[in-house]
């Protein structure tokens, strides 16, 4: 969740569990942008057979957020009938 705190966009709630990790660095880009940055990472460098990743992000009125990954997300070959899923809301 991104909300205004002391006139600036700030992450006020952030939760992730394996295989997902979210990093919110304190200093990214020009301070004048006022944007909060969220880096979404996966352990092992990609989505593997059976992973189910779901992200829900709420950005409040007047807030700015940028959500990205370190690099392109790799999707590895499925094993048997174990499908993978990734959802961003």
Tally of alpha and pi helices: 0
Largest sheet: 3 strands, mixed
Poorly predicted tracts of residues: none
Average pLDDT, all residues:
86
Rounded to the nearest angstrom, the distance between the terminal CA atoms is 12 Å
Number of DSSP E strands? 9
Radius of gyration, Cα only, in angstroms? 15 Å
Strand order of the largest sheet: 3-4-7
Global geometry: elongated
Assembly state of the chains shown: single chain
Structural class: mainly beta
Overall number of structural domains: 1
Question: Helix coverage percent of residues?
Answer: under 10%
Secondary-structure element string: EEEEEEEEE
What is the strand content?
35-45%
Explain what the structure shows.
The protein has strands spanning 2-5, 8-11, 20-23, 36-42, 46-47, 52-55, 65-68, 74-75, 85-88. By secondary structure, the chain is mainly beta. The chain has one domain. β1 (2-5) and β2 form a beta hairpin. Belongs to the UreD family. This is Urease accessory protein UreD.
Attribute tags:
mainly beta; about 90 residues
Please describe the topology of this protein.
Blueprint: E1 2-5, E2 8-11, E3 20-23, E4 36-42, E5 46-47, E6 52-55, E7 65-68, E8 74-75, E9 85-88
Short description:
The protein has 89 residues and is an all-beta fold. It contains no helices and nine strands.
